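Progress note, sequence design subtask.
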């Protein structure tokens, strides 16, 4: 099962961590087969927030909300279950100064794909009159 590990922390504390420490860990979990993708994010000052309301696009410099802890990066991992995902997440170096949120991936493409034959079949049948479906 796939899990997304979102790495959060206070920007100053995270900046104090050696990049080499994080890269060493990344190399180890890639070699173990757990890591599918991972990246660190630029500082929060580089963020841009995009919203669409009533068809109008609004762009704001900075993050969506003011918080002490910022999203610093992510790891997309493969794990047998939540317990294994937690074990992997507990070894992510910034967990020592921040936190790591572990969330299961919702397989949206697979869910939609599995319904597509059913949707196609419905669209190929003659239209029923209202109230007969």
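Output:
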């Amino acid at each position: 099962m796939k899990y997304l590990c979102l790495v959060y922390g206070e920007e100053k504390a995270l900046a104090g961590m050696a990049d080499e420490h994080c890269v060493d860990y990344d190399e180890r979990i890639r070699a173990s087969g757990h890591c599918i993708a991972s990246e660190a994010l630029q500082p929060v000052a580089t963020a841009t927030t995009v919203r669409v309301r009533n068809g109008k696009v609004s762009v704001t410099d900075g993050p969506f909300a003011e918080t002490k802890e910022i999203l610093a990066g992510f790891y997309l991992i493969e794990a047998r279950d939540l317990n294994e995902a937690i074990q992997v997440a507990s070894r992510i170096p910034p967990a020592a100064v921040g936190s790591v949120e572990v969330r299961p991936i919702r397989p949206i493409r697979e869910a939609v794909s599995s319904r597509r034959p059913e949707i196609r079949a419905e669209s190929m049948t003659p239209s029923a009159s209202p109230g007969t479906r």
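The CA atoms of residues 72 and 99 lie 10 Å apart. Work on this subtask will continue into the next period as scheduled.
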